[in-house]
From TrEMBL:
It comes from Triticum aestivum. SUPFAM superfamilies: S-adenosyl-L-methionine-dependent methyltransferases. It holds the Pfam family Methyltransf_11. GO terms for biological process: methylation. It is found in: Plastid, Chloroplast, Plastoglobule. This is Methyltransferase type 11 domain-containing protein.
């Protein structure tokens, strides 16, 4: 193989080259590369194999395995993984994932693995409620840990370090297992869970591409070793890309009030938790100031009428949160409240 061909093919599989589109690779290998036409064809084919890990070659066949955790968001079958093993960023980035039932492929986009149902769709696009879309903005993602989140302290949130410690206390019985930080935002807690060394893997999951990019930037700045067991995954809370009974711990910091359907989300969380698995979440309790008239019991039915045209957050009373956990099959409900801050927990029986 000519050296330029080898170099071009190698660069396609390196972590830092971040999967250049096939057309770009072809352009890079065009006339200006100085290669002869047959050599260019070999180089483009080699690059294409590196870009599509499911392209079968004899030497790569051994790298195919059923994934330990990831499942198809369409049918929940475990995904087949092709690439280096491990739940760290470089290994996941260099792997391709495929559902053998739906024949749908999933790859890393930028820095995260996209496991939404819409992953790879070209024509269809979908708008979520404003409380979800808001956090997809690059500006909000940038500002989130630079002042936005700190504002929650005024409502009683104890702050990152104390909330982390409180959550760790709830997770004691599942230490050593797989933790998913759902709706992780910029990963302020995912990074702490990962560097605590208390879990075999930490999956930072969010619907916002920009929050996940921001999380990646913080990981780089903090010089968290890239081979730390931390994965970045884009997914919808109502369609978690995990098999049933496969996850030990789920954390959802300040997120339930942003979800399109909290009941579908908690049902999903309950589905994926292993027996004995623990769910811990924080949110703002509904108060007369943040929910206005709707916080008064007698006026709650009005929320059904006005809710659809009101794009603001969904705040709940403690009774509603407990009801939600219980009706989704979680037991041992417990909570800690400080002004309108609540941390609550439930367990999969
Ligand atoms: C207020 S932030 C919370 C971030 C972080 N967990 C914390 O404790 O500060 C809410 C997060 O929920 C995410 N979110 C909203 N709708 C979602 C959905 N349908 N699926 C997954 N995440 C969603 C947003 O992208 C945002 O990052």
């Amino acid at each position: 193989m000519e050296p330029a061909v080898r170099a071009a093919a190698a660069s396609c599989s390196s972590y830092s080259s971040l999967h250049p589109p096939r057309a770009l690779v072809a352009r890079r290998l065009g006339r200006s590369s100085g290669l002869s036409l047959p050599a260019r064809r070999v180089a483009v084919a080699a690059a294409a194999i590196a870009l599509d890990p499911f392209q079968e070659t004899k030497s790569e066949q051994n790298d195919t395995s059923e994934t330990e955790v990831f499942a198809c968001p369409v049918c929940y079958e475990p995904l087949i993984r092709k690439g280096p093993p491990g739940m760290n960023l470089p290994a996941i980035y260099r792997s391709g994932f495929k559902c053998s039932k739906c024949n749908k492929s999933f790859t890393s986009k930028d820095v995260f693995l996209d496991l939404t149902v819409t992953s790879g769709m070209k024509e269809y696009s979908e708008l979520k409620p404003a409380r979800t879309e808001l956090f997809r903005s690059p500006l909000v993602s940038y500002l989130y840990e630079r002042g936005w989140r700190q504002n929650f302290n005024r409502s009683g949130f104890p702050g990152r370090d104390e909330e982390f410690q409180m959550a760790q206390d709830y997770f004691q019985s599942v230490a050593g297992g797989i933790l998913v930080d759902v709706s992780c935002g910029s990963g302020l807690f995912s990074r702490k869970f990962a560097s605590s060394g208390a879990y075999s893997s930490v999956i930072a999951l969010d619907f916002s591409e920009n929050m996940l990019r921001q999380c990646y930037d913080y990981i780089k700045q903090e010089e968290t070793p890239m081979n730390t067991n931390l994965a970045l995954v884009r997914a919808d809370i109502s369609r978690l890309p995990f098999a049933s009974c496969s996850i030990d711990a789920i954390h959802a910091g300040a997120a339930i009030h942003c979800w399109p359907s909290p009941s579908n989300a908690i049902a999903e969380i309950s589905r994926v938790l292993k027996p004995g698995g623990v769910f811990v979440a924080t949110t703002f309790l509904s108060t007369p100031t943040n929910s206005g008239l709707f916080s008064i019991d007698a006026l709650k039915p009005l929320r059904q009428i006005v809710g659809p045209v009101n794009s603001s957050y969904n705040f709940f009373t403690e009774g509603e949160l407990e009801d939600l956990c219980r009706s989704c099959g979680l037991v041992n409900y417990s909570s800690k409240v400080q002004r309108s801050f609540i941390m609550f927990s439930g367990q999969k029986p």
